[in-house]
Amino acid sequence: MKNELRKLISEFDLIQDKNLREATLAVWEKAMMAGGWSITDLTRIPFTLLIEGTTVDYVAHVRGVTKVMVEAARVLKETYGNQVKINHDYLVMGGLLHDIGKLVEYEEKNGKFVKSGCGELLRHPFSGVGLCYEAGIPTEVQHMIACHSKEGDLGKRTVEAIILHHADFTNFECLKA
Ligand SMILES: [Fe+2]
């Protein structure tokens, strides 16, 4: 399954540290198993239930967000040098894992994608952290997942979490507009 995921989402290979890359793939596998999804389901699941009839799938969104993050980090580095400190592996992991909780937040019922029982009570930032905590994903990345959405508005965000938050909303809002 890990190889199929790497073929589908080439951004996994942007994670330089082999152990971190393997851990990220392992969380994807676990979340797919928990949600009962196959590899082909990943490009059928809508990236959000908040935009009625969207044709943008889960994989396209996760890749779009990760790519915007990588580009943003590149420009920030180029412009500000060491004044902005970014952990590149954490950045990519946060992009790839930020919506992993959606794989248990959503389910398919009678051919329709809807919130699962778990999803009614736990939005994906919470279930995402749960999946990653269990798997030993670094706290810095769990923080990014926890704070990427509105739930993180009241607290402090790290640089990587700020980039993720804005990349996610840039991808979401532009499609909603
Ligand atoms: Fe997202």
Oligomer: single chain
Small-molecule binders here are: fe (ii) ion
In terms of structural class, how would the helical and strand content be classed?
mainly alpha
| N-to-C CA distance | 36 Å
Strand order of the largest sheet: 1-2
Strand content: under 5%
Number of DSSP strands? 2
- The average pLDDT score comes to 96
CATH architecture: Orthogonal Bundle
- Rg from C-alpha positions? 15 Å
Q: How many structurally independent domains?
A: 1
Series of H and E elements: HHHHHEEHHHH
Largest sheet, strands/sense/barrel: 2 strands, antiparallel
Characterization of this structure:
α3 (58-80) packs antiparallel against α4 and α4 packs across α8 (139-147). This protein is globular. The model has no long low-confidence stretch (mean pLDDT 96). It has a single domain (2-176), classed as Hypothetical protein af1432. The chain is mainly α and 177 residues long. The chain has nine helices and two strands, in the order αααααββαααα. The termini are far apart. Strands 1-2 form a two-stranded antiparallel sheet. The protein is 59% helix and 5% strand. The protein has helices at residues 2-8, 18-35, 58-80, 88-97, 102-105, 117-121, 124-134, 139-147, 159-176; strands at residues 106-109, 112-115. β1 and β2 form a beta hairpin. Fe (ii) ion (FE2) is lined by residues 61, 65, 98-99, 168.
